[in-house]
Amino acid sequence: MSNLERRATVTTCGGRQDVGAAPVRELLSPRRVRLGESTEVRRLLPNLGRRMIGAWAFVDHYGPDDIADEPGMQVPPHPHMGLQTVSWLHEGEVLHRDSLGSLQTIRPRELGLMTSGRAIAHSEESPRDHARLLHGAQLWVALPDAHRHVEPHFEHHAELPAVTAPGLAATVVLGSVDGAASPGTTYSPLMGADLTLAAGAAPRVPVEPDFEYGVLAMAGEAEVDGVTVLPGSMLYLGAGRRELPLRAATDASLMLLGGEPFEEKLLMWWNFVGRTQDEIARAREDWMAGDRFGEVRGYDGARLPAPALPPTPLKARGRVR
């Protein structure tokens, strides 16, 4: 997934100093962003005052959108470096193409995981013949310094482990939950799970006290540690818990995202995660010159040009404003 904003802003994030050991309940409101002509997303990370949850550095929630008479998602070829992209659907399909030659249709509750490493390009689109509704989330995971220059690769996992309890079904997207581990490759301690709650259910989900967590509300109405979350909102929970109490007022779906607080300070601009202004500037130049990121073949349209860099110097800072 690309950040298609033509006036891309610099986001500085990372560092442990702003992650407290005690639990918090910080409700994050989304910012609405257009992706092309027919898709609008609700951007939860980076957010005013909160930039990361563990290594999770970017979260968009979109839909449910009725695209029966629309082209649906149409994201032209664009570059990434220094991160992993996670495609997660509840309804609809997304066709992924990348500069490695990957061609994969991603369907609901299947994991599309692209590791950009040093450089990759990809496109995402609704297939020509697509379902009526499109609903999902697009997320980025920042790569730590030791792994951010790995060779790019793409993974598709149609079968993922599940954990069940009365009124709860959890699909393990990344990392592990209650002993069940996702096959998706990770490079730092983190987890992601899709939680489906039946109306009236009140489970308690085991969590790691050393991880910080956030919950993205996908559908329905639920309480997370006593706080009501509605679709398109995210509750940041901090660290220090061993279990997370949930209660569903209606049938509801949530994404639980967590990870060890990310120690390194990062610089995120447009679709790049780096460490210095020179690194970001070189990546932009390489993309515009047609170098390094490769070519996405088969997409019917032009690739996405990079916006201009801001005139002020870029500097990596901590994880909150």
TrEMBL record:
<dbReference type="Pfam" id="PF05726">
    <property type="entry name" value="Pirin_C"/>
</dbReference>
<comment type="similarity">
    <text>Belongs to the pirin family.</text>
</comment>
<dbReference type="InterPro" id="IPR014710">
    <property type="entry name" value="RmlC-like_jellyroll"/>
</dbReference>
<feature type="domain" description="Pirin C-terminal">
    <location>
        <begin position="193"/>
        <end position="292"/>
    </location>
</feature>
<dbReference type="InterPro" id="IPR011051">
    <property type="entry name" value="RmlC_Cupin_sf"/>
</dbReference>
<dbReference type="Pfam" id="PF02678">
    <property type="entry name" value="Pirin"/>
</dbReference>
<dbReference type="InterPro" id="IPR003829">
    <property type="entry name" value="Pirin_N_dom"/>
</dbReference>
<protein>
    <submittedName>
        <fullName>Pirin family protein</fullName>
    </submittedName>
</protein>
<feature type="domain" description="Pirin N-terminal">
    <location>
        <begin position="41"/>
        <end position="141"/>
    </location>
</feature>
<dbReference type="InterPro" id="IPR008778">
    <property type="entry name" value="Pirin_C_dom"/>
</dbReference>
<dbReference type="InterPro" id="IPR012093">
    <property type="entry name" value="Pirin"/>
</dbReference>
